[in-house]
Amino acid sequence: MDSLFSQNLTAHQPLAEQLRPQGLDQFVGQEKLIGEKGSIRTMIEQDLLVSMIFWGPPGSGKTTLAKIIANLTEAEFITISAVSSGVKDLRKIIDQAKTDKELHQKKSILFIDEIHRWNKSQQDALLPYIEQGIITLIGATTENPSFELNNALLSRSQVFVFDKLSKDSLLKIINRATDKLSKEVSELIAGIAEGDARVALNTVEMLQKSYDDISTISEADVKNVLEKVALRYDRAGEEHFNTISALHKTMRASDTDAALYWCGRMLNSGEDPLYVMRRVVEFASEDIGNADPQALQLCIAAYQTVHFLGLQEGQYAVFQAVAYCANAPKSRAIYNVAKQINTDIKETENSPVPMHLRNAPTQLMKDVGYGKDKGQSNLPEHLKDRKYFNS
């Protein structure tokens, strides 16, 4: 119930929180999940809610959708962060959820942000209460659940993958926040946000505080404001995107000294070493590929080393991987192949598998031509002349 002073709690809320959607119709993006035939929308409409893991990049709507689900199901919504909460907090939540269920027949949804931060025993503590139906879990993570969550927890939950928000989706969110920005400035903000709605709205809010009339600001003004913020951030830590770009480009240029320096800058700024290693693993696959297959194996081993040891002892594995990648021969052949194949799949017809490539386990299937090789192309007919890979 609102009190006399409730408005004080929201008076200085960030713009991103003020504009948080309250219903599915206001939600932007993730159409495959909450569109007309989206899987989560269907679950809500049919009252078939199960425990879920939301996996996706920052600012893609994981927390917002969890709150909307709680509103639509009229459940008690409890939210905690795995960074600052543990099993002791969970016990208190479970006791209240039991009371709400027994006395008021009220469901409880427990939303755990950054659930990958909980260790194995903390995750295991959830299992009996999920099975008993005391709580419905919604866990949010930016990390791959296959690597960061227990199999037992995954087997009791349904994983939903959130996509990075498109530029069009970000423009809708920006226009909802204000209609005073020019089209060019709005598009610039959407590009800078890189799929993160929170970044987009924080940028709009920053501009509103910096200029009396944002309808007159230019793209140069936006860059000027962001540059000042970046400088303040540099003094306290590290400018994230510029530095990871520097690491990537110096490895690509085979400049080992510079690559190691930028790697050290990121680690010393407090950047998550697992994030750095994910980017180095990505580099080994995209930029080195089969020119040196050992690079990918070494980088994955380095990732695992950091995961097991932490930064203090694991940092040497990070430096080792960066030095190896910088010195390795480079080839983007596989990257280019994958890009061309994905384009062909999206932009050309979805042809059936050629008959001679199909398995023929029954006589009937053999009779109709399954498995019979007549010298046909192994690609679909409309792509029979395509050459994807040159070794």
Task: Looking at this protein, list some descriptive labels.
391 residues; alpha/beta; Rossmann fold; Zinc Finger, Delta Prime, domain 3; 4 domains; 5-stranded parallel beta sheet; 7% strand
Question: Could you explain how this protein is built, in words?
Answer:
The chain folds into four domains: 30-161, P-loop containing nucleotide triphosphate hydrolases (Rossmann fold, 3-Layer(aba) Sandwich); 167-236; 240-327, Zinc Finger, Delta Prime, domain 3 (Up-down Bundle); 350-383, no CATH class. 56% of the residues lie in helices and 7% in strands. It is built from 21 helices and five strands. It has a five-stranded parallel sheet. The longest helix is centred in the N-terminal third of the chain and has 18 residues, at 87-104. The chain is globular and about 70 Å long.
Summarize the structure.
By secondary structure, this protein is α/β, with parallel strands linked by helices.
Separation of termini? 68 Å
Largest sheet: 5 strands, parallel
Give the low-confidence spans.
231-238
Query: What is the count of β-strands?
Result: 5
The helicity comes to 55-70%
Count of the domains: 4
- Output the strand order for the largest sheet: 2-3-4-1-5
Give the percentage of residues in beta strands.
5-15%
Number of helices: 21
